Recover the amino acids of this structure.
């Protein structure tokens, strides 16, 4: 599994767009990039996943440059309820024998009113 | 999406006693479940992979005789912390993958966690 590097923490004001970048220089050809969100005292929750270019769903967008050595999670117009820890995970998670997830340090996002 | 539950949500026990934590997949079958431990303001650390009908696979540094895992059915895995000590106090989280319905590669569903406090 590729090692990931994220900022430890970020602050943002309500209503702004927040971009969290994750570095994964050793990403392999079969690896996907997945982001999870975790609120205090809860289990993580899947946010978005991508392989290349851009992916968008109802809660976030994921931008992946051509070299795939980094990725950026974009949260549009954040609110106080977006305060959480965001984890970037990279790996080939399709193999039945390789399902386990390795969490890095994550980014603690704090939204300021 | 699929739901994973844990019981209890929080437990306080005395040092030296054993505590059992249950992880259930409510609307899907899971041949594999995962157990994580998370200390305050730290990331999740994988402890072991629970395999239905066979022995669990433990991560390096995790004592298998202290953290007993049983995966007796396709919807239930249990983690028993034996002879608990204060340093075992942590947030324990399980996860499972719904292979049949998940369209996302590797997406896992996490339980709400169990907060264990050993006094």
């Amino acid at each position: 599994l590729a090692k990931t590097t994220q900022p430890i923490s970020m602050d943002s004001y309500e209503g702004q767009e927040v971009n969290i970048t994750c570095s994964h220089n050793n990403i392999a050809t079969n690896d996907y990039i997945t982001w999870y969100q975790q609120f205090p005292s809860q289990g993580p929750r899947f946010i978005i996943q991508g392989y290349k270019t851009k992916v968008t769903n109802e809660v976030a967008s994921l931008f992946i440059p051509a070299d795939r050595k980094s990725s950026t999670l974009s949260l549009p117009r954040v609110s106080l309820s977006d305060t959480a820890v965001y984890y970037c995970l990279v790996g080939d998670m399709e193999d039945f024998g390789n399902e386990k997830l390795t969490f890095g340090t994550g980014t603690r996002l704090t939204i300021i009113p | 999406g699929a739901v994973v539950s844990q019981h209890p949500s929080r437990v306080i026990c005395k040092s030296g006693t054993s505590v059992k934590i249950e992880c259930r997949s409510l609307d899907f079958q899971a041949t594999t479940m995962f157990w994580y431990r998370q200390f305050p303001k730290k990331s999740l650390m994988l402890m072991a992979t629970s395999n239905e009908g066979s022995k669990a696979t433990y991560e390096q540094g995790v004592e298998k005789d202290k953290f007993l895992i049983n995966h007796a059915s396709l919807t239930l895995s249990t983690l028993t912390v034996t002879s608990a000590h204060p340093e075992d106090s942590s947030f324990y989280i399980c996860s499972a993958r719904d292979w049949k319905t998940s369209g996302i590669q590797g997406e896992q569903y996490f339980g709400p966690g169990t907060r264990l406090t050993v006094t």
Q: What stands out?
A: The longest strand of chain B covers residues 19-25. Chain B has a mean pLDDT of 92.
